[in-house]
Specification:
The complex is a heterodimer of chains A (about 120) and B (about 110). Chain A has about 120 residues and is mainly beta. Chain A contains no helices and 11 strands. Chain A is about 0% helix and about 45% strand. In chain A, a hairpin with a 6-residue loop joins strand 5 and strand 6. The chains are: A mainly beta (about 120), B mainly beta (about 110).
Amino acid sequence: QVQLVQSGADVKKPGASVKVSCKASGYTFTTYYVHWVRQAPGQGLEWMGIINPVGGSTTYAQKFQGRITMTRDTTTSTVHMELSRLISEDTAVYYCARGGSQFLEWLFDNWGQGTLVTVST
Amino acid sequence: QSVLTQPASVSGSLGQSITISCTGSIHDVNVYNYVSWYQQHPGKAPKLIIYNISNRPSGISTRFSGSKSGNTASLTISGLQAEDEADYYCSSYTNSGALEGVFGGGTRLTVL
């Protein structure tokens, strides 16, 4: 069965960077795009970006341009999301989610368990 | 403020039907057929329940259905059950200058 397993919770100080990992299994890693979505405490879902696991090309939400980097490792079927220059408003649960087999096939059909990132002094 | 507008809350009695709207614009819902819906229970990851406006993934009850008219997509849940009580989110992508994914603000469904 399709599984996305994320790295554990993390606490960071303002100004630092955080890197969250998402290891995929149960399907051919290079067949489907992967998205990152976050959810602040008590708030709704927010799309952050998408990565093509074949070539590693990315598209990021304008809000995060310059602060976010998504990478992938095809040897371990893992996608990484790094967010820099953290502020308290970045405190959220970060999810990876499997997308479609084409860039514009816009859906999130399997989700990771979520990773809580807390930004605090 | 979310690009896609949903009611903050809806409620319905056991066995009844409810509909949740998701209103976008000519840059997203109106022109693209990639509207999807997600159910999220407290403390859990979201779950895909409708994709491409009206398609159900394998294993999703036929009580869930989706539709679209103009700028507005809708999710209908028939025969409400206690376990349907959750938050529901619509999603699409928008191309108003830059292509980005967007979500509605979410709708809390209360089953009475």
